[in-house]
Design goal:
repeat, Coronin, WD40_repeat_dom_sf, mainly beta, about 500 residues
């Protein structure tokens, strides 16, 4: 129900006379809203109307921050171009809202359009899921008919995600299967595997440039689970129990090797560092306000000078709240270890080149200089009927201080925030070393190394927890100072 580009937010909107969604200028935790807009929205705002039934999903083009697609219960896909002039005069006395008009309309399916997803490397390539259990790939430059239709799902498609280069597509379905597609090679899945055993929704996300896929789902006992899969064979590499809550876990991958998990219906966001097929718990953002929807900002739009490594936008009730995840470091110089290159707004392929079979790694952008260059990625062959052992796990990334979530101002009149609950620190124990074949001295060295590694991991966890507490105390002190100042003014 919520999506973000580098400039705007789109939010599904309940309205009379058909489906609609709102487009808002992007709020930032570090500076005022653009166009001098108030934090509290006007009673009447422009809406993107055009669907005859409720809007189910929106998606922003990764290469144009003002181009958004919407899909609804009416089976249509609408394309919209947002002009910045539409936000001039919001909230003024004589302001007259003018609704947005679509620039293109696609009759995609006789049934609902559940999800939309743009291609990460090719311009104007859009994937949509339909109520008849298919995925259709569209060339928006010639959108009369889908270029490719993927089938084989036995029930509702619950999620889909492209790999880094956009050559493979992973899907999850209500039939409890995980499927891997090479859309330009076959309209049928090249790999199918049994997913989570529970009957509730399963979500999948590709883990950056690696050959790993992360999924969230439920066990037969209704435990919430997090799993890692090898993309080559769809073998399960690891499965962890997160907790026993009922809400669906939404996974979000960040290219600094961090996985965020947000539960629908609760207010918490966990985040883990991925290292050698293990997830090391960093910390947890806690809130008493349950989230109805959540999305993350493209990394190229982060406030690097503030050491912001990720930013989420959370819908809770009638509030949209930006949440900045900030590493507590001095920001005097660029922090290269926590800011790897981000996907850029420059496409590597045209839609015609993609559908003609051309492969190209997506372009990436330096967050220090803004320079754009192709990313380095090797193209694996299309999976066949059998696979060898899974590829070696990626090398561990440099460890860094855990990010601290800094709750940003909500888009309402400011109210005192409740004190945060203590952070529950989770860690996954390091594997025990096997005895060495070189004798007892080698075994003793390995045992000593294992002990030191465990102690170091525990020390790092304590440091992370202390840093989080310090940042929380600072934030609470700042809020108290602001509230006392506000009271004095009144």
């Amino acid at each position: 129900m919520l999506a973000a580009s580098g400039r705007y937010l789109s939010i599904n909107w309940l309205s009379s006379g058909g489906g609609a969604f709102a487009v808002l200028p992007l709020p930032s935790p570090f500076k005022p809203l653009p166009n001098n807009l108030p934090w509290k929205l006007p009673d009447i705002i422009p809406l993107a109307r055009g669907h005859s039934a409720p809007v189910l999903d929106t998606a922003w083009s990764p290469f144009d921050d003002s181009l958004v697609a919407s899909g609804g219960e009416d089976g249509n896909i609408l394309i919209w171009k947002i002009e910045s002039s539409a936000f001039e005069g919001w909230g003024h006395e004589k302001f007259e809202p003018v609704d947005f008009d679509p620039v293109a309309r696609i009759s995609a399916s006789p049934k609902r359009i559940g999800q939309l997803l743009f291609h990460p490397a090719a311009n104007h390539v859009l994937a949509s899921t339909t109520g008849d259990h298919t995925i259709k790939l569209w060339d928006l430059e010639r959108s009369d008919d889908p270029r490719i239709t993927l089938g084989g799902h036995g029930d509702t498609i619950q999620s889909m995600d492209w790999n880094w280069a956009g050559t493979l597509l992973v899907t999850t379905s209500r039939d409890r299967k995980i499927r891997l597609f090479d859309p330009r090679a076959s309209t049928d899945a090249v790999r199918v595997a049994d997913g989570h055993a529970g009957i509730k929704s399963v979500r999948a996300v590709w883990m950056g440039q690696s050959d790993r896929i992360a999924t969230t789902g439920f066990s037969r006992q209704s435990d919430r689970e997090l799993a890692i899969w090898d993309a080559g064979s769809l073998d399960n590499v690891r499965k962890l129990v997160v907790d026993q809550s009922a809400g669906v876990l939404m996974p979000f991958w960040s290219d600094n090797q961090v996985l965020f998990l947000a539960g629908k219906g609760d207010g918490n966001i966990r985040y883990y560092e991925y290292e050698n097929d293990n997830f090391v718990a960093l910390a947890e953002y806690k809130s008493t306000d349950p989230q109805r929807g959540l999305c993350f900002l493209p990394r190229r739009a982060l406030a690097v000078s503030e050491c912001e490594i990720a930013r989420a936008y959370k819908v809770s009730g009638s509030i949209v709240e930006p949440i900045a995840f900030v590493v507590p470091r001095k920001s005097d110089s660029f922090q290269a270890d926590i800011f790897p290159p981000a996907l850029s707004a420059e496409p590597a392929l045209s839609a015609a080149e993609f559908f003609n079979g051309k492969k190209a790694a997506p372009n990436v952008q330096s967050l220090e200089t803004g320079a754009i260059a192709p990313s380095s990625v090797s193209f694996a062959p299309t999976p066949k009927n059998s696979f060898g052992p899974g590829a070696a796990a990626p090398a561990p990334t440099p460890s860094y201080t855990a990010p601290t979530p800094a709750p940003a101002p909500k888009i309402v009149e400011p109210t005192p925030a409740p004190a945060p609950a203590p952070v529950r620190q989770e860690s996954i124990p390091a594997p025990t070393s096997a005895p060495s074949k070189n004798g007892s001295s080698g075994g003793a060295l390995q045992e000593e190394n294992s002990r030191l590694t465990t102690e170091l991991r525990d020390a790092r966890a304590q440091i992370r927890a202390l840093e989080l507490q310090v940042e929380t105390m600072r934030a609470n002190a700042q809020r108290a100072k602001e509230l006392l100042g506000l009271g004095a003014d009144q």
